[in-house]
Amino acid sequence: MTDTDPKSGMFWSLFKYIQGGNSAEAKIEMTTPVSTLAKADTAAGTITYEMCFFIGAAYESNPPTPSNTRVYIKEEPERKIFTRKVGGWMDSESWEREATDLKELLIGKGFSFSDESYYQVGYDAPSKVWNRRNEVWFYSLN
Questions:
Q1: What is the pTM (predicted TM-score) of this model?
Q2: Is pLDDT at 42 greater than 90 in this prediction?
Q3: Three-class SS of residue 61?
């Protein structure tokens, strides 16, 4: 699901899908992580977000069709990423700061990666207060 505003209900639209808002009316177990692709359009001065839930093994080969037309099934190829963990609560500034810090670290080490976009990745329920796990992902070009 894509949107120009990450707070526009992407999570709840996806959550409704796994709670039965699909062609099979199937309840699909929530998995982690929840990933959000952040892609900047510097010419337009905008950022587009695409949030994804990973579908577990039970539905992976034949996922039910979403009832909401803004939700879609997307198959991702295997990929190599650069990442590191960061704790705490993440807001847009925290995600951007972590992405910038990781990008500088990767450049400093001479790694080849795509900086056209990055993933904001969370592993914890919103109700979890302590020891939160978040990651920023960049695609490796090697």
A1: 0.89
A2: no
A3: coil
